Amino acid sequence: MRARAREPGGGAPASGAVTPRLALVAVLLALGGCAGYSDSFDPIAASLAEQRYDRALEALERRPPARRDQVLYLLDRGMLLRMNRDFAGSNQALEAAQARIAELYGKSVSEESLAFVINDATRSYVGEEHEQVLMHLYKALNYLDLGARDEARVEALQVDVRLREFGEKVGYAEDAFARYLTGIIYEDRGEWSDAMIAYRKAYDGYRKYRADYAVDIPQFLKQDLLRLASRQGLRQELARYQKEFALDRWMSLDELRAQGELIFILHAGLAPIKREHAVTLPDPQSGHLVRISLPYYESRPADVARARLTVGGAEVATALVEDVEAIARKSLAAKMPAISARAAARAVVKSQLARAAREGGRGGGDRDNALAAIVLGLGVEVASLLTERADTRGWLTLPHDIQLARLPLPPGSHKIKVDLLDRNDQVVAVREYADVVIRRGRKTFISQHWISPRPYTWRTP
């Protein structure tokens, strides 16, 4: 009696157990087949290469993001709005990204569990450390373009807060250009002590940049340190800078403030894009196939190496102040041990799941159940392979690098000619700005994004 009672009762639960597992396999397969955020960026990149920032924005807005990619969408939207010179709209998008990042810092346990079983890309993206700092930097630049200098100062303070938060993190402890821009903002406001502190931090940052990214201390910053150290009466510090920089002449603060100053910032090319490198091999213990997928960066090098500004008889070239690609690569390299360890642990878990699913129906004498378990095990194994994907997400509209030039000019209206040069100093393109107003004792900011590989001349009205 018990044997007969067990057969119908045993068969049904076994079949019932297989059904939800098969449903899980279907979910895993669906997740594995989903394209990553960066996989569909090509139409946007093509429009950017044609300097059609409006079309790039339209292409982005045609593809609503998954909720886990919302921060990325807002960051890219903010940058594309900026390229379209909608600085207020850009800051609205970046503010929304900032708010969403704050919400996500308390990550849910279920999201972490899903990432452990499926892949890292199932987690909500909060931005790399350097991306979060650059988010505040671009908000500050937007405010400067809007003439809202008090708001730009607030973002400068946020940069300092963010960098202190990240100060102990491996791979990203400082952002020299963010510090430098902060110093420029303070100096423009006449806050000499704060400007000097920021310039010192930029100086320390660039000394690290020289070792980590082969980016030297910009000549403009050397002049700033000498000027402010002299203004603040820091004689020993001034003497140290003079000796280190081998400079004994610079424009004093009074001389500079009797004029105005043009600050030109070039955002060249596009930051590297993450791709996936995957290896599939048999697990020696279980015999099941396992897959390890890791991210790597693919370069999108800029065709412009520097810019040359000509104003009347004055000429100045830009200096590299931020190598975004180098920073991104170093950040990823610092995180690769942890990424690799998670991928290896996930492969073990997936192999165990496939083995458990395949063996779950064995031993009960029910051929149908055993066959279903074998099919289920195979399904889990296939799903495990398909769902193992590297997290290739990143802020794709960041520039490859950022360059800066500072040029003192007499007050009045000026015509600015900008020659964009390649690595052989050949002109790639020319940009002309008419009626740029320079005010006595103030700084005028101009930003230029450049991505297109095709040389031609274009002008602003």
UniProtKB/TrEMBL annotation:
| PROSITE patterns attached to this UniProt entry | PROKAR_LIPOPROTEIN (PS51257)
Source organism, top-level taxon? Bacteria
According to UniProt, the name of this protein is Uncharacterized protein
Taxonomic lineage is: Bacteria, Pseudomonadati, Pseudomonadota, Candidatus Muproteobacteria
